[in-house]
Amino acid sequence: HDRTMQDIVYKLVPGLQEAEMKKQREFYHKLGMEVPGDIKGETCSTKQHLDSHRNGEAKADENINKESSEEKQEEDNDYHRSDEQVSICLECNSSKLRGLKRKWIRCSAQATVLHLKKFIAKKLNLSSFNELDILCNEEILGKDHTLKFVVVTRWRFKKAPLLLHYRPKMDLL
Fold this sequence. Notes:
Blueprint: H1 3-12, H2 16-31, H3 46-54, H4 62-76, E1 85-92, E2 104-108, H5 113-123, E3 132-136, E4 139-140, H6 147-154, E5 162-168
Parallel strand pairs: 1-5
Antiparallel strand pairs: 1-2, 3-4, 3-5
């Protein structure tokens, strides 16, 4: 599930993306389900729309502008659902804090440790997310680390979910 590699392959193999989209639509129609990511009444994909502009078939029509603004709005409302996902188990590592009601979460691999700190602080009604440390394998994680980075560097050969612990921040010295 590597989006960058997928984009490269789509650019190198002409017509592959359109063929894949067609197969996906046929599969879901055969099952009688809606195609994930489709807007009701959608007739062309963003890529087809962009390709027509590149080939000089651009029309100065209000409908095209309206469609592109709707597509832009759909992209903005994605909330990283199409990103690679990471399953996480958040456990409390201290008697000073209580555990979460729901310790299992699934989120974008692009989320950072800071996002998790803010999430935990909000759920535990803490005054500040800076009061928390998040650990993986007993090692404190940097706030700017993405979850993908944590999985690749500290959870390499272990099975999902990624097990992270949280505790009150400990000041050394």
